[in-house]
Amino acid sequence: MRQEDLEDNYRHKGLREKLVEELRGKGITSKAVLDAINKVPRHLFMDTGFLNYAYKDQAFPIGAGQTISQPYTVAFQTELLDIQKGDKVLEIGTGSGYQTAVLLELGARVFTIERQKELFLNSQALLTRLGYHPRFFYGDGYKGLPAFAPFEKILITAAAPEIPDTLIRQLKNNGILVAPVGGETQEMTRVIKHSRDDVDVTKHGYFVFVPMMKGTNGRNGTSDK
Ligand code: SAH
Q1: 37 lines ligand 1 (CB under 6 A)
Q2: Which of the following CATH numbers is that of domain 58-224: 3.40.50.970, 3.40.50.150, 3.30.300.20, 3.40.718.10?
Q3: Does 216 contact ligand 1 (Cβ within 6 A)?
Q4: Alpha helices, H only, 31-189
Q5: Whole-model pTM above 0.90?
Q6: Who has greater pLDDT, 223 or 165?
Q7: How far apart, in whole angstroms, are the C-alpha atoms of residue 103 and residue 197?
């Protein structure tokens, strides 16, 4: 069940400010990122039963076997992306839409892809009601969006076994890609693409994400790839 009234009251705002302080304490320094986290009503992206947990620094289930990322992780990935106003950003794994909203608050133009039909539909409905307007795509993020490439930034929010080459190709020169790379645990990886065959790869600690899967999954759970 979703938060039908979309209420964002002083209590939520207070909890959000505390969360921002917690993230600052954990090493997030970008004021722009912290301000964005302070603006997005995370409790509206979670089931009502989780209201009391919405502003804890934890990941939570959002249905379809997926999770809304931990706020620290969202902030950390966003900081690595170094979003500038007007950046064209490809996001893979819309999920709840929370990370999408944070990117939009930073002034990015967001193209977001989700492979689970139910999550694609839910996040589209919610973000639209909240006044967030990314471009939504139902599809397989491994393919990226060649028709809309190149992108200044690419963000993968599911565990990729390796950086998909297709996505590096859709990155602009001097663009940045951030992705958790690995199996059971992943290393946060940042790729800066100087030119087609000159990329810088740096590692930024260990995280745990749900896996990046191939193809798409319809509402009934069957694959239609
Ligand atoms: N950023 C999200 C967290 C998403 S969890 C949030 O803030 O809520 C990762 C998401 O990636 C899941 O919704 C999963 O369905 C999606 N996903 C996994 N593999 C994918 C792929 N190949 N293409 C698009 N989405 C994918």
Answers
A1: no
A2: 3.40.50.150
A3: no
A4: 31-39, 71-81, 98-105, 117-129, 165-169
A5: yes
A6: 165
A7: 28
Q: Are 32 and 83 in contact, with CB atoms under 8 Å apart?
A: yes
Looking at ligand 1, which residue's alpha carbon is closest to its atom 4?
95
Residue nearest to atom 21 of ligand 1 (CA): 141
Predicted confidence (pLDDT) per residue in 95-110, tens digit = 999 999 999 999 999 9
Contact criterion met (CB below 8 Å) for 66 and 118 = no
Distance CA 39, CA 16 (A): 8
Residues facing residue 151 across a β-bridge: 171
Distance 97 CA to ligand 1 centre (A): 10
Examine the pLDDT at 223 and tell me if it is beyond 90: no
Ligand 1 site, residue 141, Cβ cutoff 6 A: yes
Tell me what the mean pLDDT of segment 49-65 comes to: 85
Catalytically annotated residues: 69
